[in-house]
Design goal:
This protein has about 325 residues and is of the alpha+beta class. It has a single domain (about 5-280), classed as Jelly Rolls, CATH 2.60.120. The protein is built from 10 helices and 13 strands. A 7-stranded antiparallel β-sheet has the order 2-11-7-13-5-4-3. Strands 6-12-8-10 form a 4-stranded antiparallel β-sheet.
């Protein structure tokens, strides 16, 4: 168990300062994107690894079959219908309704998703790209309900994880398993190719307990209009379109966001953040108290042992 004193003493130099009074600006990334020396053909082809390094994301089709996706969706619905879970701190509802927007810490709440987080197709690939043992920094279900599912404004996850959680460097990535059709109509994630190689310094300081409002609507840690326009001018905007069973992989520093969903069709995904053990969090770089454990694994950091997915039983995923 990491103590508060140890976290503060272990904190490294802040090479990605943000929300510290500086004016908005863009600086160059100083960390690698792919830490592996070469591609592993059993996990990822060389051309796909090169594309991930270059653009910062990949959409891999048909990673999971229909039977697997059906089991994920059954679990998605079960959790959504559980009144006790819906009333928990891990469940974030929409601003205008009691519908779940996101449900956090699912790798601990659900045996199905606990097993999925350790699937070699996910954890094995993350371990390869980061060239280290990995653990779950954060996990969640994004429901994005139909008709009134609100937008996620443009942001870099790493900026938040660095400032508010104390993640030292960009040695983490996200994997989003698509459970329902994701297209431009129902608020598919939008990404700015190449933006992961630049860090956007955000203005203003972080309020205490910022997470309590930012999970519904983020107002701090978002890029200025000028910085965002510059990133888009360089890389454009693409939508992460995919069918159920596809997987979106994107770098921790990828600038991304999504529109509101005013269609009848929900846009639901399972979301795992894999962080390198060598990059485990220290004290938040904003100097405030850490966010809750369900948003940032801090006390229970355990390396994953990648293995085949087993939906039938809730096996322990940890070595």
């Amino acid at each position: 168990m990491i103590t508060e004193k140890a976290e503060q003493s272990e904190q490294s130099e802040d090479v990605y300062q943000s929300r510290n009074g500086d004016k908005p600006k863009i600086i160059q990334r100083v960390d690698p994107v792919v830490y592996a020396q070469a591609a592993n053909p059993s996990l990822i082809a060389e051309d796909l690894q090169a594309r991930y390094e270059r653009q910062g994301f990949l959409v891999l089709d048909n990673v999971f079959n229909k039977r697997e996706v059906d089991s994920f969706r059954q679990e998605l619905n079960r959790l959504n219908d559980d009144k006790e879970i819906k009333a928990s701190a891990e469940a974030i509802t929409e601003l205008s309704s009691d519908e779940i927007r996101s449900l956090f810490k699912i790798h601990e709440i659900s045996p199905v998703f606990k097993s999925l987080a350790a699937d070699n197709r996910l954890a094995g690939l993350a371990q390869h790209l980061l060239n280290d043992r990995v653990y779950i920094h954060q996990s969640r279900l994004n429901y994005k309900p139909g008709f009134r599912g609100k937008e996620f404004y443009w942001h870099s996850d790493f900026e938040t994880w660095h400032v508010e959680d104390g993640m030292p460097r960009m040695r983490a990535l996200s994997m989003s398993i698509i459970l329902t059709e994701n297209d431009q109509r129902n608020g598919a994630l939008m990404l700015i190719p190449g933006s992961h190689k630049k860090f956007v310094v955000c203005e203003e300081e972080t309020p205490e307990n910022h997470y309590s409002v930012s999970l519904k609507k983020q107002e701090y840690g978002i890029p200025s209009d000028e910085c965002l326009a510059s990133l888009v001018a360089d890389g454009g905007i693409v939508s992460a379109i995919g069918k159920p069973g596809s997987v979106l992989i994107f770098d921790s520093n990828m600038m991304h966001g999504s529109n509101s969903n005013i269609t009848p069709w929900p846009r639901s995904n399972v979301f795992f953040v894999y962080n390198a053990i060598s990059n485990r969090v220290t004290w938040p770089f904003c100097g405030l108290s850490p966010r809750p454990e369900y948003l940032c694994s801090r006390k229970a950091i355990r390396a994953i042992e990648p293995r085949p997915f087993n939906v039938a039983v809730g096996q322990s995923i940890y070595a």
